[in-house]
């Protein structure tokens, strides 16, 4: 005896919304004109300068500079990632993520670890260590402190944004 099979397919609203929303990416030109946007660009440019000044030396012979390299490259990559998220307004497409808290944690950790790295960098720069690399290490130390101040500024703006969200 033949059996009849009925197959029913359904489409979830999640997949319909995902395919509809991922077809175009928004671009927020105005973000780069805000103070946090300008600070992010400065962090990227000067962070690149920090790690390229160290990478051009024999930093791997000195563990302190290895730590500075790790912090500089790690936060450089993450800052580019967050800049892309903010520029493409991806954060509006993923409302489940508490972006204000993520930004505050990111900028706060970047400030603390960059401050430690800048202090380690400055304390490790001596002419006795390697006079050939002295200028590069001294310049990287200076720019590390400048990047640290940029992350401190972004931490402040993230804190203000987080407070305004939690008070609502």
UniProtKB/TrEMBL annotation:
Q: Name one GO biological process term.
A: myelination
Q: Where in the cell is it found?
A: Membrane
Domain MARVEL, by residue range, is 31-163
Supply one GO molecular-function term. Answer: structural constituent of myelin sheath
- Its GO CC terms? membrane
From what organism does this protein derive? Scytalopus superciliaris
Task: Indicate whether Amino-acid biosynthesis appears among the record's keywords.
Answer: no
**What keywords tag this UniProt record?**
Membrane, Transmembrane, Transmembrane helix
Q: Topologically, how does it sit relative to the membrane? A: Multi-pass membrane protein
Protein's name in the database? CKLF8 protein
Q: Give the transmembrane ranges.
A: 31-54, 60-85, 97-117, 137-159
What the entry lists under Pfam families is as follows: MARVEL (PF01284)
Please name the InterPro entries in this protein's record. Answer: MAL, Marvel, MARVEL-CKLF_proteins
